[in-house]
Amino acid sequence: MAVQKPKFIQAWECVGCGRIEAPQPCLGICQDRPMELVPKAAYEQLAEEYGRMRELVLQLALTSPRPDQWEAGYRAAQKRAQALVDALQLHPERTKVSK
Description:
The protein has 99 residues and is an alpha+beta fold. The chain is built from two helices and three strands; from the N terminus they run βββαα.
């Protein structure tokens, strides 16, 4: 599933009653302020992706490999991160650091 930037639409929300209108502001006595809305499906997709990335970050932050297993731990974390990148179809340019 490719990650797509959500399409934002501008609407008006009444600061008194919470009514939302788009694209024209209320002509009554309500006070409106502009706000941005995102389609529910786009929000849910990003929330799910965030949850998966958060899980990986927490695992990295809260896991300590055995003293003689740092490289194996790093390689395993790198493999999990790459699987997540592939699943989310996030493919930034790869940078290799020489040893």
